[in-house]
Amino acid sequence: MKKLAIVGNGTAAITAVRELGRMDATIAMDVFSDEPYSYYPRPRIIDFLAGDVSIQDLIQYSPEWYEQYNAHLHLEEPVKQLDVDSMSLKTTAKRYHGYDRILVAVGSHPWIPPIHGADKKNVHTLRTLRDAATIRKGIETTNRQIIIGGGILGIEIAAALEKYGGNTLTISHIDTLLPKQLDSAASSVLLKRLNQLGLNILMNFECKRVLGDKEVEALESTTGDRVEGDMVIIATGVRPNIALAKTAGLGCNRGIVVDAHMQTSEKGCFAAGDCTEWQGVSWGIIPVALDTGKVAARNMVDLGGTHYNGTTPRNTLKVAGIDLTSIGEFNPVSPKFESVVQVDEKEGTYFKAVLKDHTVVGGIALGNRKVALKLQRLVSTGKRVERPFSDIFE
Ligand SMILES: Cc1cc2nc3c(=O)[nH]c(=O)nc-3n(C[C@H](O)[C@H](O)[C@H](O)COP(=O)(O)OP(=O)(O)OC[C@H]3O[C@@H](n4cnc5c(N)ncnc54)[C@H](O)[C@@H]3O)c2cc1C
Predict the structure, then answer these.
(1) Is residue 79 lining ligand 1, measured as CB closer than 6 Å?
(2) 3-state SS track over the chain
(3) pLDDT tens track for 93-103
(4) What mean pLDDT is predicted for residues 173-196?
(5) What percent of the chain has pLDDT over 90?
(6) Which pLDDT score, from 0 to 100, does residue 318 have?
(7) How far does the centroid of ligand 1 lie from the alpha carbon of residue 306, in Å?
């Protein structure tokens, strides 16, 4: 019987557990998590923040789910040390576990930009259910919550907190919302719709300092402007968790470096999800965690049998009432690409398809789910389309 260790209990880890259990029933797995809860999908933390669901509603797989795959879940037992030479790990419970193969799927952590005073009480980040519970509690005792970050997470947090009874202001350091998903024209359409929904958003405010004695009183920008607030949530991106891997001697850059089999620089040691770096890129999205979790699992059983060829990045924003999908190449600079755009300011819709040689390679669909699904289908199938390209949006 092979003994496998899985460090982490997020999307990449549970994808691997399922795949491994299905492939070989003789495998025994130990899954280590530093969280107190069994598996929950991280995007649904937003529903909890909005007060729509309880913690229990969010737990998707109980410990019994793991048992069906011959996996044992160790909650609140983070792995502190990996010894890849002796193929063993040590947890905070001071237990040593030997393994034949290991998967490191430890995710990422919120990145905090260099803001003076970001260590004050009432400055938060959001990554776990525990973070969400702390923020929700803070709503009851604060008057104005400032969200730093005009990306997907920042907007989702603002909408959720407004629903929960908060009074938010979201600030963006640049003049485009969701710069990783939208071009500036789409950002303007989105901004208008978010304002109509009652979200207060301030563009071009680069936060330099959190003001206040021990607690937050206001934020000051690099140009000396000031906004008042007594709670801050920083949503400015994530960085892969590499500390454990680095100390163990695994090759790391921004993330844990993996090859097309999701194997790290050490034989028998694999990595998947947010913590990885493949071909110089680290993502921080569910589709990559799903794909890499599966590829890692297959290669842990049959090395070389499955290759990772990359994931087409796609993002869907779930702010109340607004469907927004951004997929693949959405803002090309090269003249090899052709873009077709349709905007309806009154309806608040924005559609863009980016084509190369009559094939849709990316685009944006704001305000219409049907168009979003069509774009996704065209990108994933690579089906040839004929002129006029605007028919794509019909
Ligand atoms: C609020 C929120 C909303 C999101 N919404 C979306 C969305 O709409 N679409 C999308 O594509 N992505 C979204 N994401 C990002 C998405 O959740 C991540 O890409 C995904 O969870 C990555 O999965 P993972 O398994 O790699 O890492 P994670 O889900 O982070 O899981 C890693 C786990 O490992 C644990 N761990 C870390 N170190 C150790 C250790 N030493 N020992 C034991 N355990 C350890 C961590 O605590 C964590 O439980 C969202 C993220 C957040 C926080």
Answers:
(1) yes
(2) CCEEEEECCCHHHHHHHHHHHHHCCCCEEEEECCCCCCECCHHHHHHHHCCCCCHHHHCCECHHHHHCCCEEEECCCCEEEEECCCCEEEECCCCEEECCEEEECCCEEECCCCCECCCCECEECCCCHHHHHHHHHHHCCCCCEEEECCCHHHHHHHHHHHHHCCCEEEECCCCCCCCCCCCHHHHHHHHHHHHHCCCCEECCCCEEEEECCCECCEEEECCCCEEECCEEEECCCEEECCHHHHHCCCCECCCEEECCCCECCCCCEEECHHHEEECCECCCCHHHHHHHHHHHHHHHHCCCCCCCCCCCCEEEECCCCCCEEEEECCCCCCCCCEEEEEEECCCCEEEEEEEECCEEEEEEEECCHHHHHHHHHHHHHCCECCCCHHHHHC
(3) 877 899 999 99
(4) 94
(5) 93
(6) 64
(7) 24
- In the sheet that 218-221 helps form, which strands lie side by side, from edge to edge? 207-211, 218-221, 226-228
Span from the CA of 108 to the centroid of ligand 1 (angstroms): 6
Check residue 94 and give its pLDDT.
76
**Ligand 1 pocket, 229 CB below 6 A?**
no
**Model confidence over 112-136: pLDDT tens digits?**
999 999 999 999 999 999 999 999 9
Cβ atoms < 10 Å from Cβ of 86: 9
CA within 13 Å, CB half, 285:
17
pLDDT at 382: 95
The answer, yes or no, to whether any atom of ligand 1 lies below 6 A from the CB of 367, is no
Cβ atoms of 323 and 290 closer than 8 Å: no
Tell me the residue type at 58. L
Q: Token pair 């963006």 is at which residue?
A: 172
Domains of the chain with CATH codes: 3-109+238-301 (3.50.50.60), 123-234 (3.50.50.60), 323-393 (3.30.390.30)
What angle (nearest 5°) sits at the alpha carbon of residue 208, between those of residues 254 and 206? Answer: 80
Atom 42 (ligand 1) nearest CA: 78
Which of 102, 111, 147, 274 has the most ligand 1 atoms within 8 A of CB, as the residue to mutate?
A: 274
